[in-house]
Amino acid sequence: MEAITSENVMLIGSLILMVGVLIGKTSYRTGLPLLLIFLLVGMGFGIDGLGVQFSDIHTAQSIGMIALCIILFSGGLETKVAAIRPVLAPGLVLSTLGVLLTALLTGLFVWWLSGMSWTNIHFALLPSLLLAATMSSTDSASVFGILGTQNVHLKQQLRPMLELESGSNDPMAYMLTILLIETIQLGGSLSAAELLWQLLLQFGIGIAGGYVCAKITQWAIIRYRRFGQKAATSEDGEQASSMISILTLGAVFMTFSTVTLLGGNGYLAVYLLGILIGHYKVPCYRGVTKFMGGMSWLGQIVVFLMLGLLVNPREMMTTAAVSVLVGVFIILIGRPLSVMVCLLPFRKVTMKARLFVSWVGLRGAVPIIFATYPVIADVEGASQIFNIVFFVTLLSLLIQGTTVVKAARWLRLVKPQQQETDFGVELSDDVPTSLHTVVL
């Protein structure tokens, strides 16, 4: 009898998923980020835990790519254009220049460490920058998962700023990662002008592709809705919402694939698609939002469990000392310094707000997914890059993830706000009404 069958894979996968969800409930008591718990559960089931072996880096990257598309679209869908408009400039500067500065500062630090005789890493400048680029973006899911579970509301429009930055900085980190891998493979012969051109090309095609696909998706949803209304037998509302949600999911993958094939940044296009679909308020918008929200959580959970299975803790510990130094640098120096430089022109952003933004630089699943690209490209030292990125992510979630709310309260950036409820009532999208809580 074969040990590896579809039934066995399904059984083990379902058990890991269910155990992860049940154990994840302890995050409310322990204060640990929910996604960190899923990561630890995956490691517990892995090769150095209960012995589940998973080492297919290509499958991990493919699953991560699909999940990241859904996560970015869902984040864009819930991003309110009116809320981000006042913080558009600082948010975009943080998500572009901030990522670049973080990667540059951290990469130079890694390169300096590599020159020390006592370290067990020996990276040249470009691999050092590549290591830094993979973990130069922040994780929105971790930040807002923490703020959401503890019902924390921030002053000075910090939430939309962080929402915009964390949702739009993954494409920048991805571009830097891919360009540095290409440069290394070409023997460092890619010029600065070519790098700049590639960045502009990916940004330009990504933005244009996201806009065009959003218009196509809006047209398709409206046409579907009109076909249903003109039919002799009207379509059930729940069925329409489900079908439109599936149609939207297909549009997400179509957007990413098309833009990537054209040489643009698919992740940027998907995030922009989410923002525009949310802004257009397409039919069954609430149903689509709930569906994509659930898919986003599923994607995050699956990715963290999978990455926990993928890592080998024994190999990771061989770079523990260097990883701690890199993690401390990026938390205390790299991220804060880049934030301070980026926010210099914005006088309205107070020092307390800048300090909080500096601290909310959590690393999550995205850096680990990006760290699989050097492994697949067979870049020298790729296994060390993966282990260091994984360790730094754990360190970031453990240190920053458990202190985000405390930092906001210590800096007096938390504002009291009454929690609203919908009492389980869902209003139709076709009815121009809203539901509010009134306290007498």
What report would you give on this structure?
With 440 residues, this protein is mostly helical. The protein has 21 helices and no strands. It has helices spanning 6-24, 27-30, 34-45, 57-77, 81-84, 88-114, 125-134, 140-149, 158-168, 170-185, 192-230, 237-261, 266-280, 285-310, 313-317, 320-342, 351-359, 365-370, 372-376, 382-399, 404-410. Helix 3 packs across helix 14. The protein starts with 5 loop residues before the first helix and ends in a 30-residue tail after the last helix. The mean pLDDT is 81.
Uncertain spans: none
The portion of residues assigned to helices is over 70%
| SSE pattern | HHHHHHHHHHHHHHHHHHHHH
Integer-rounded radius of gyration: 22 Å
Instruction: Please tell me what the overall shape is.
Output: globular
Mean pLDDT: 81
Beta content: under 5%
| Ends distance | 68 Å
The assigned structural class equals mainly alpha
The total count of helices amounts to 21
The overall strand count is 0
User: Quick one: biggest sheet?
Assistant: none
